[in-house]
Amino acid sequence: MNAGVAAPLLVADDVCKHYPVRGGVWGRSIGAIRAVDGVSLAVESQRTLGLVGESGCGKSTLGRTLMRLETPTHGTVTFDGRDLARAHGDELQRLRREIQMVFQDPYSSLNPRMTVGEIVREPLVVHRIGSGAEQQERVRALLETVGLDATTIDRYPSEFSGGQRQRIGVARALALGPRLVIADEPVSALDVSVRGQVLNLMLRLQRELGLAFIFISHDLSVVEHMCDTVAVMYLGRIVEEAPVERLFARPAHPYTRALLAAIPSLDPRRRTGAVPLEGEVPSPIDVPRGCPFAPRCAWVIAACRKSVPALEAVETSTHRAACIRRVEVAAEPLSVSGAPRRVTGASS
Questions:
Q1: Taking the alpha carbons of 44, 248, 218, 145 in that order, is the dihedral positive or negative?
Q2: Which of 110, 132, 185, 320 is most exposed, with the fewest beta carbons within 10 Å of its own?
């Protein structure tokens, strides 16, 4: 590492999360669901890493594993140089104070029997931070920080709109003063009219509090607005990673190009990926031989089915893609119309 370059805040190295599948009369193991299958990534302080991909690709499981809500089957996760994957007891509790999560559904993630004050105060109680009066004052300050009136402290979640409930979820996540917030599809359950408000709130809090974010989403238009770096997941693996501007300008994996093609736009001049995505994601229990994306790929050649491609650089060390044709894919101009076109050298 070069002198003067800060170490990443969180580093995941070859992280796997497999769930055993049992069947038959005796419940014997018949395989495993490879929800996360060898993911390596880094999150820098005060920066936002986006995790994108279709539903079921492993994004949320990875987020929960990085936070140790799930224990990794294999691999290491270090936070600020400390081993999060193997931490237990008091050590794990201390680390969790620095990593918090905003969940997808603001309706099911808040206990309807607790008041807003009790919900936001709960992390402070669990971690025994401050006296009762200090906790109450902290809750009022947090509500005002996320744009809610402190007088709502005794109201229940049912009295709030979806956007307001997500603000409560953000306030709860900030209660312990974390350095990293994992936001799992934080606006997907909200009306379009309030999504921008919640996203802008998160950007403001990042600037004011110096937060790092892992932003999980299937919506690339939101990721383009929120993130510094983007990691694209497919079937439990990262298939492309790049700074957000480069990923949108020169995607080097056919899957990324297909996701870009699916972004809706009212502007006919907006460039989209050339080949739309077809077919279904294969079963994580029975992953295809070779490149997992090969059965759906318009760029596939015979060599793609022989081995799983590694993440390798595409012209620059900050842009990596897991595709043996990554240089050709990146060089292919993005279509202006978005119409499918024949890819040179492709074969079934």
A1: positive
A2: 132
